[in-house]
Design brief:
The protein is mainly alpha-helical. The protein has helices spanning about 1-20, 45-50, 55-60, 65-90, 95-115, 125-140, 145-165, 180-195, 195-200, 210-220, 225-245, 250-265, 295-300, 300-320, 340-355, 365-370, 380-395, 395-400, 405-420, 420-430, 430-450, 450-470, 515-530, 555-570, 580-590, 590-595, 605-620; strands at about 120, 360, 475-480, 485-490, 500-505, 540-545, 570-575, 600.
Length: about 675
């Protein structure tokens, strides 16, 4: 007790002495209540802000000086959006006007509920393809049935998004890693192209799988209508040419307009070129889609896949096109909220379902075009929506002679945008395993189908994550001359370790899949250490658990058994940097009782000092010529600066298993370069 009192007094004197040298403005102060679990402000206002962040911003904080730039950007986006979304109607197999209804509903609702100020919500190629694949067996080529089924699918997606929001499942967006998304989108592009082969050649192509479709196309390719193929090729050629020579122009809109003019002047319909036909004007009446309960049930899992991919797409594009904060704002204020985006997706799809549309996502190309045009808020989307309304009420007759092959060519162009060769090259350079994952996702999407490809891609993500957790990085820690702290000895050729004590780090939460691996690595490591230094075998093994913040009962039992096995071999197991979240379950599982609280250390230096004191006591000798029973002499513990941390001489390591020296990193001469492959 007296020792504790003296320590407390000494600590108080030290704090007083140090505190005297601290300026007043840096002195510690009482902690405030940060209200981390409380909702600020009045409940109704808080609910409105969370449910409709877009509307809240437009009504209370929108600077009027941005209106001109937003209007210009909105017109530019509309010029790109209108032909683009009409082309997607060919993928879903619904009339082109349905795409305009869908786009208009998505634009208006997202401007109210969305948390991103520049994200372009609306029809997107991958989601359109997934929708078309899901409803095709039930629609059987009937456009009216396709409209009803796609609207039902939109309502199902809305339901899944609401469930995800209640469960706070925004983490779903992280399940599709970058390699898998790259491969998945490339696979979707292949399916899009294959799905348009019949439209651009004027042939009748059928089949439920890509193999059947390709086989069907090869059997009728000799019946290709040259005028139809010429229209598709010319439209695609105009788009690519304009993109190259005038990248700022709305290439798809110009190409589609030229195709329509050519259709009228050359009477292409009379030559066998299929045209869009009559386009209804106005807007549909809100109504529930007329489908049976069995049909709705058959679309439930398709809706789940669309919800996952659509939400992932939204969050990736929102992160990929960050908006620079305005004066007085922070980046956090303009960052998309994952949970709010789930609500926005639910609201968008609920509205679309009642207005006879089909599921949507977001468009990276339209978002990039909006930012390039100077857009600062969703006002640009509302301006684009006004342009869509103008088309619906006034320009319908102008679109009746639009060749279907021209829309197919636009789909070809959109598919090409999904395949990113630079991304594949980047994955190859970064790590071969990431590239292989992308290829597997591509093949899975193409071979087993778009919806199954979603599940396949997520399964690959989870398996890859499980592999990383089950076989994580490890490291033996030691001291490095001239660098404070302890570091991975594999990173420093001149690192030094203490005889008889191993400091080890296992960089993953401990659970059932990796506790066996941990025990095997510890046993192998101790064997290597004892073989290299037989005169100083391992007596302490310190596990740095700062990265092990989670543990299950299987891992806890394994850790207890490891401590018992090491104790049987005369080795003490210690834990350093134990967080309370880890201490509690280990204590309940009886691990702490086996290890002993005296072998728990707050920091690595504390563990080092404890081992040195223990080792000096264990190695203490009796004074010469003293009778038996005399007190051993324990040398004073040297401070770290007095220990021989310099690089060992060559004769010191002769005959030992010394790790090879890694190549020098040109950026940091001390550390080795990162290993790729």
């Amino acid at each position: 007790m007296g020792s504790k009192r003296r320590n407390a007094k000494e600590l108080a004197r030290d704090e007083k002495r140090v505190g005297a040298s601290i300026p007043d403005h840096l002195r510690p102060r009482p902690a405030m209540d940060y209200e981390l679990e409380k909702e600020p402000g009045h409940a109704p206002v808080s609910v409105l802000r969370r449910a409709a962040p877009g509307l809240t911003y437009l009504l209370s904080r929108y600077p009027r000086g941005w209106l001109r730039k937003d209007a210009v950007a909105g017109v530019a986006v509309a010029a790109y959006l209108i032909p683009q979304v009409m082309a997607y109607s060919a993928i879903v197999d619904v009339p082109p006007v349905v795409s305009l209804w869908t786009a208009l509903a998505a634009i208006i609702v997202y401007a109210v509920l969305g948390s991103s100020r520049v994200l372009s919500s609306g029809p997107e190629s991958t989601i359109a393809l997934m929708t078309g694949v899901a409803i095709a067996p039930l629609a059987a080529g009937n456009p009216d049935r396709a409209v009803a089924l796609s609207a039902t699918l939109a309502l199902i997606v809305a339901g899944w998004c609401l469930i995800a929001r209640v469960l706070r499942a925004g983490i779903i967006a992280e399940l599709l890693s970058t390699p898998l998304l790259v491969g998945y989108l490339a696979g979707g592009a292949v399916l899009m192209v294959v799905g348009q082969l019949g439209k651009v050649t004027g042939t009748s192509v059928s089949g439920d799988t890509i193999v059947e479709v390709v086989r069907s196309f090869l059997s009728v390719v000799g019946q290709t209508q040259l005028p139809t193929l010429a229209v598709a090729a010319a439209t695609l050629g105009v788009i690519l040419l304009l993109i190259k020579v005038r990248p700022g122009w709305p290439a798809p809109l110009i190409a589609v307009a030229l195709a329509t003019i050519a259709s009228v002047l050359l009477h292409l319909e009379a030559q066998g070129v299929k045209v869009v036909g009559t386009v209804p004007s106005g807007l549909p009446t809100p109504q529930l889609p007329a489908v049976t309960l069995d049909e709705a049930k058959s679309l439930i899992f398709a809706g789940l896949g669309i919800a996952i991919v659509g939400y992932s797409d939204v969050m990736l594009i929102a992160r990929g096109f960050p908006l620079a904060p305005a004066e007085g704002e922070t980046k956090a204020e303009v960052r998309a909220d994952p949970q709010a985006e789930l609500v926005a997706m639910a609201g968008v799809h609920l509205t679309i379902g009642f207005f006879s549309g089909y599921p949507v996502s977001s468009s990276g190309s339209r978002t990039a075009l909006a930012i390039a045009g100077g857009a600062r808020s969703q006002v640009y989307s509302l301006v684009a929506g006004l342009c869509v309304i103008a088309v619906l009420f006034f320009a319908g007759p102008l679109m009746s002679q639009l060749p279907a092959a021209a829309l197919g060519a636009v789909v070809f162009y959109a598919a090409g945008k999904l395949v990113s060769i630079p991304d594949f090259k980047r994955l190859w350079r970064f790590r071969r395993r990431e590239f292989v994952l992308a290829i597997m996702a591509l093949l899975g999407t193409v071979i087993i189908g778009i919806l199954q490809g979603v599940v396949f891609a997520i399964a690959l993500s989870l398996l890859e994550m499980m592999h990383r957790l089950a076989r994580p990085h490890e490291g033996v820690l030691g001291r490095v001359p001239g660098i404070a702290g302890m570091h991975d000895v594999a990173d420093y050729p001149d690192a030094r370790t203490i005889p008889g004590c191993v400091f080890y780090r296992y960089d993953a939460p401990l659970f059932f899949a990796n506790i066996g691996d941990l025990r095997e690595r510890v046993d192998r490591l101790i064997g290597h250490e004892n073989e290299a230094y037989p005169e100083a075998p391992v007596r302490w093994f310190i596990l740095n658990v700062e990265a092990n913040v989670e543990v299950d009962i299987t891992a806890a039992d394994g850790l207890r058994e490891l401590a018992q096995e090491l104790d049987d071999r005369g080795i003490h197991l210690g834990l350093a940097r134990v967080k309370f979240d880890l201490y509690e379950p280990l204590d309940r599982a009886g691990v702490i009782d086996v290890i002993g609280k005296d072998m728990l250390f707050a920091t690595l230096p504390v563990a080092e000092e404890s081992y040195l004191r223990w080792a000096l006591e264990q190695d203490a000798i009796l004074p010469e010529d003293q009778p038996e029973g005399s007190v051993p002499v324990v040398p004073d513990l040297p401070v770290w600066s007095q220990l021989p941390w310099e690089r060992p001489d060559d004769d010191e390591v002769e005959g030992r298993q010394v790790k090879p020296v890694h190549p020098v990193n040109p950026i940091n001469p001390v550390r080795r370069p990162p290993v790729s492959g």
